[in-house]
Amino acid sequence: VFNAETAELLSHHQVEIKQEFPREGWVEQDPMEILNSVYECVERTCEKMNELNINITNIRAIGVTNQRETTVVWDKTTGEPLYNAIVWLDLRTQSTVERLLKRIPGHNKTFSKFKTGLPLSTYFSAVKLRWLLDNVEEIRKAVEDGRAMFGTIDSWLIWSLTGGKNGGIHCTDVTNASRTMLFNIHSLEWDPELCKFFDIPMEILPNVRSSSEIYGLMVCFPIFESGALTGVPISGCLGDQHAALVGQMCFQDGQAKNTYGTGCFLLCNTGQKSVFSEHGLITTIAYKMGKNKPAFYALEGSVAIAGAVVRWLRDNLGIANSSQEV
Q1: Which of 36, 87, 146, 218 could crosslink 27 through cysteines, CB 3.0-4.6 Å?
Q2: Domain that holds residue 198
Q3: pTM of the complete model
């Protein structure tokens, strides 16, 4: 929680979430655990604010930022996920990518680059969603019955936090949409041709909104039978790297930031024009600050494994007891 006048950090709380590795190269997380960690962080942060004698009724708005590309499909009638979330760095879709490549003239990985800014890769949500539709019977059936909803983590959270199966808002913002490989970054709409290419039904996709508008109001949390922030509008949504670009106030053409987390990501603001790289950088939407405001673009360089390797040395290889040792 920040002071809106001074940007001073007033209070925070964090919870580490388990990653599961069911097979080599597979990375999953439990969407319910992600959601419950958000409930817990909200409640604990508000408790800390009360202890500091800061009035939480002064909290005017809530923003969501999330791991990009991580893919969830859930049942809108029960509110339950239909499978674990497939995490952005998961590699199970390699064979899906190879199969799709065979259908592209000249096996050109950058066939959709000028629409999406992205190469065909295991990274992006469309191939993860394709894998789920091909391999999980329950998801196929939910799609046939009209019960399935797809989203990246922001969509899953906003839908759940605004009421879930009781009227939750199914939306995403332009930055997260621009990481799916299904979104045209110029028209700012889902692309029917790409959806057809990946054979993804458009009715399961969230509505795409700007990064700064009121999506819906927070409802009380079922697990706490309360909710310190019930009724507060959720009014901001940005994928994590884009949020860092905005947080570092890189609002001018040419300003760049680098984040060091699970991976390392360098984003450079290119203003209101999309710039295409000849050297493997991807083109992405940086932000769109309001319904009627223009979209701004960025070039991005990505290193998939950075902090994650530290965690792997600790948890999997067992050669360090803590991240600090590394």
Answers
A1: 87
A2: 20-238
A3: 0.92
